[in-house]
Structures are given as C-alpha cells and as structure tokens.
Design brief:
Length: about 230
Amino acid sequence: MVHAEDLKRRAAAHALTYVTDGMRLGLGTGSTARHFVELLAEKVHGGLTVLCVPTSEQTLAQAVSLGVPIATLDEAGPLDLCIDGADEIGPGLALIKGGGGALLREKIVASAAREMIVIADASKKVEMLGRFPLPIEVVDFGVNAITRQVAEAIRSAGCAGDITVRRDGDGHPFVTDQGHLILDAHLGRIPDPAALAAAVAQVAGVVEHGLFIGLARRAVLAGKDGITELEP
Ligand code: 5RP
C-alpha cells in the first residue's frame, strides 16, 4: 500500500516541473505544500532562482529554515505561479480550502498569481464538494450574531448543517494569522458552490470563505496508479 504522505510528495514533485528559473511563487500551507517547499528548497540549493511568498506563518517559518528566498506579497509584486494543497477538489476545480486555517492569505496569494496549481493525493477529488466542513473566516466581534447570519445565508443557497467555531488543541478558539476566528460549516453536500460563495460573502463580519472558485488552473493528483492532471 502506498502511504498518503508518499502520494502528497509525488504530487508536489510533479508540480515542481512547472517551476522555472526566475519565477515568483506563492507557497501554500498544509502537509502537501510542506512537501513542495522541501523539494523546492533542494532545487534552490542546486541553483534554482525563485522568490517566494508564503501563505502562512507556518510556511514562512519552514521556508526561512530551509533557506528558500522569501518576500512579502507587496515586495514580490505579481506572482507567476501559486502552488497549494486543498481539502476537496470538485468539478471545474472548485476547491474547499482552509483546513489549516490559512484560507485568507491563501486566497489573496492565489488571486495575485497568474496561475494556481493544486497538489493533492487523489482522495481529495470529489464529485460534489461539502463532505469536508467549509471553513469561513470571521471577525471575533459578535461571532454568535455572525454565525446566525451565516446559517441563514447557507440556507438561502440550498445547503444546511451545523456551524461550529473552530478550536485549537487546548480548546481555545483557533485564531488565524490575521487574528480572526474560523467557523466550520458541516454541510455534507454543496450542490451550487458559486451560489453558496456569493451568499456567505455577503454576511457582515465574514472576512473570507474557503470556496476557491475559478482560481485553480490545474490540479496535480497523485494516486496509486500515478499522476493525473486535471484542468477546469
Ligand atoms: C490550509 C489549506 C490546505 O491546503 C488544506 O487544508 C490541505 O492540507 P493538506 O495538504 O495537509 O491535506 O487549505 O489552510
């Protein structure tokens, strides 16, 4: 049996073939992105020149520790490519992201890139998004009121399910790199991701949601039978 970490690393290694000298790269967050940063660091030490914008403090710390050249998004300017993982990859390469809580910076960085490539093990591909709880980043002021309005927005988009405030390992509310909270919407199925994205985005207090629609240009999936590339 092939271990999931091996598959993630294979997807990351394949995505590295899209990186060329001089590129400005967005670096994703999570275990798959972590493999990519490790492999990228090896190339950098072999002479590859890149400038990278991490999507989280976690990835920033990893990149710095491995000697990968980093910059802020504003220092770097427009990016050539963003490489990141995903929690679910649905039809048209609509994604759920934010399992690691980095969705806000991830979406900003992906949006600033000419192209986004998603890397994952093949189990992340689904026929319909929603089994993975949808992360929604909100401000901490009036979180109960915001949660009620998010629930109403979700219903208006034809979905339903519990919404929980994400907690860290100590039971405290999870706080994002930008100082916000995360609501996890346990919906089971999202028949119309675009309608849900539009409805949730309208709620005052919602900073961003984990539906990435129209951002990924390519998905690199690693399964036991090899690499598959998907386009929207
Ligand atoms: C972090 C993310 C990650 O890309 C997503 O959670 C996938 O992580 P992993 O590669 O560990 O499965 O969106 O906010």
